[in-house]
User: Fold SCAN domain-containing protein 3-like from Erpetoichthys calabaricus.
Amino acid sequence: MPHSKEKRRKVDSENRKFNNEWTDKYAHIQNAEGKPTCLVCLVICSVNKEYNVQRHFKTTHTNFDNEYPPGSEARQTKIKTLTQNYQRSCVVFTRTCTLQQKATTASLRIAWILTKNKRPFTNSETVKECIQAAVEEVVTDEKVKEQVISSIKSIPLSDTTAARRVDVLATDVFDTLLNQLRKADFISLAVDESTDNLDVAQLCMFVRFFGGHCFKEDILGLIPLEGKTTGEILFQKIVDFFQENGLDLERINLLVTDGAPSMAEKIKGLSARLSALAPKMKSLHCLIHQSVLCPQLSGELKNTMDSVMATINFIRSTSSLQHRLFRKLLADMSAEHVDLLLHNNVRWLSQGNSFMRVCELRKEIITFLRECKHRKAETFLTNMLDDEFVSEMCFLCDILHHLNVLNLGLQGRDKTVTDVVERLTAFQNKLDIFSSDLSSRLLHFPTLSGFIKSSQSGKVTKVMSDFLDHLKHNFAQRFNDFDIPKELLHVVRYPFTSTPNTSPKAAEFLKLHGCTELWTKHIVPEMFPNMKKLAMCVLTMLGSTYTCDSSFSHMNAIKTDHRISLTNEHLHHCLWIAVTPYEPNISHLAQSMKCHFSHLR
Assistant:
């Protein structure tokens, strides 16, 4: 066995201290790091050792003792002057470093606020000008004004600097998200795909997980897709993303998609491919998208709907002159509204608001169509004077309003699959009430009821009752057939009204019936490990891809026609900041960065 080498002694580990006598004897002072510093040439000795200090003084400043003899008044005066100069220079250096750090901190905060509000990088320069203009007008003391403006000018706020700041901020919040995701037991993943204004396909991933104290939702990534967007390509992109960031695919308990073939296909779709890597993962096609599509499948009232939409488009889009004349007519008649509403086929339920506006402005529309000399106006006027047509229009207005209320209730953050299923089940029960009410007092159809009371031949038709029957069947078919058992959701949502079975968890479940802590903490206490795991799993599950759809709205607001040159990386960073609930530690970031003043002062 070879002999180990003798460990060498390190003098810097012997707890040496600076001796204050060295200041008068060798013109040295202790710096902020505790090491001796020469007052004459500012050289720093590596250790607090008198031999090192003496050697430097004797060899470098040989004439100092002759010019300022030890113990003389001249030497004391010189040492005092050198000490004051050194301390003054340290204060200036520290103040400069502090000011640079503050300027960088201000730059980071401004970049964060602007990006949070989806503003372009060049706006940072405009903000700087606005702050200077405000200071010039508000601050009256000229000396203070000059100092404040000088400090503002020192803040680096160019467009390139703002872009770099956004990269730093986005990386910080993304790292925070990744650190919490790696600790999560369950991850719910919502995936949707859309295109930006350059027709680049962007795959948005949103996650929900338990962050230690509460459930959190945040955007995980925005992946650009080149070429086709097949299930295989989507699958590979997501797998690569998870592997690159050290995330475990097996922790995904639910995958929510928009129901597109590339995601929902049973064999080659994204859901099927991910299930092979995450066997415990459930799949859910977005229930919001399905509820929006439900009425489209019932075409009995399609002619009425198309005619109303055609009337709106005729008045608003035939010509600018015609639209102006209609608005002027509304103003002259002191109408309740100033214009009709256009609808959007992508957001189908916007037709409900359009229908409501037509019903409320029906008299003004009839007056305008009578005065209009266009040949199509007569057809639209005939419809507006037909009581049966108007009855169907009012019925659609009411039913679309109910669907719109349902859709808005399904949207929003922090909506789990239990919340969504509960609302859908409640709406299914409402449909039975609507069917009964349609043949009686019309309490849930105020627009239709008001028209029938004011007209001579307005009435409820078989088409309306058939529409409700078809809607009930459609909801039952779509929302009762998904991969998550309702009994499982009911246990977590209403544990005190559920009945235990004969499974091994039954005894634990019976104890839970007397535990009130569930309602105050959302999570079952540690004494119920199985039920806690079940609750954590279910409460993590997202109910829709609404968060992805909302992110696409933010994406379009960020990458406008004026920001076409925005790179995918910058787009992703801007979107992260705009959507994330996390806040960066800006002070810590500024301390870790190389701080500097603006070059355009």
Summary: The longest helix spans residues 73-116. The CA atoms of residues 32 and 219 lie 45 Å apart. Residues 12-91 form one domain.
